[in-house]
Amino acid sequence: MISSIKPVSSSLTAIAAVRRTTPLKLRFSPLPIIRNFESSPLRVSSPHNLSTFSLSSAAEKQRRDGFRVGAYEADRSQPIEIGVEVPEEQAGQKVKIGIYFATWWALNVVFNIYNKKVLNAFPYPWLTSTLSLACGSLMMLVSWVTRVAEAPKTDLDFWKTLFPVAVAHTIGHVAATVSMSKVAVSFTHIIKSGEPAFSVLVSRLFLGETFPLPVYLSLLPIIGGCALAAVTELNFNMIGFMGAMISNLAFVFRNIFSKKGMKGKSVSGMNYYACLSMMSLLLVTPFAIAVEGPQMWAAGWQNAVSEVGPNFVWWVVAQSVFYHLYNQVSYMSLDQISPLTFSVGNTMKRISVIVASIIIFHTPIRPVNGLGAAIAILGTFIYSQAKQ
Predict the structure, then answer these.
(1) Which positions, given as ranges, span the membrane (predicted)?
(2) Labelling 32: which of 26, 90, 155, 307 has CA 20 to 30 A away?
């Protein structure tokens, strides 16, 4: 940091004309943190050789190898830390998370729209659920084979711990699809906003966990809002209501099993969900054949194509692709954000789905029904804050 030193006498007090410069931008400094000292800006490590200095620049150059001088400007310095560009990195991380959230919500809205269109024309939720899982599994297998994505390194223990997660995921996925085949998309998601109440109940009864009082109090608006929305629903259907409730319970168990089973596993969120989809596909396929069967599917498919036309095939493909994509992005988001941020994002996602479905499908809704939905979603948001 010293530009030039011109000694004019043999004593230390004769050293003058020290030009000090400050770098424009510090990216990394091996020096310790510099404090704001007002004095002694010059540090000399070997002063014993200064007496032999001459005014000759050539001699000065020769003498430089005989001693080391370290100096810095302290009167305007600030503590220097390694990684001073962290604010820029944090800004980039926020942008990345924002993109994840926007993509997650958009894909989820598109999936729910096409899923409801398919179920209106083809009321076979078991096959619809199976196609969603099959499409996602095929997409990931192709990406691994073509090396677009790196295949996960798994072992037998990984698949053992994944099995209960897949069972819960399969039940939750099918139950939610059954619910949407019977009631409006908005009603299904209003009921599914009550998932925190199931989470607290299951954690308390099966895991023995206790929660602070604000968490329990936050369940009151959730339960009350869901009850108000259900009572005032114009097209209430018990199968649709129970499907949403079962889906809530199943997804709570899925989250619990995921936390327990994935500790210490080094599988990314994208690959983890891919493996989950494949195992869920193996589980749901025999049940789908037993409950509905190829004969019902063939008759229903012909009827849907005759009524809707070729667009029906596109609807099926779209709902299957977007189902996998939105779930994949949500699992990728979990790798980047905290559970609190994820829960807030999940609440906002549900609001966007409810509003979009009401607008697109022209779902009739009473003011008191909308009030119940708002109370339930607000309670979900309060729960996410209180739980953390």
Answers:
(1) 97-114, 126-145, 213-232, 238-257, 269-289
(2) 90
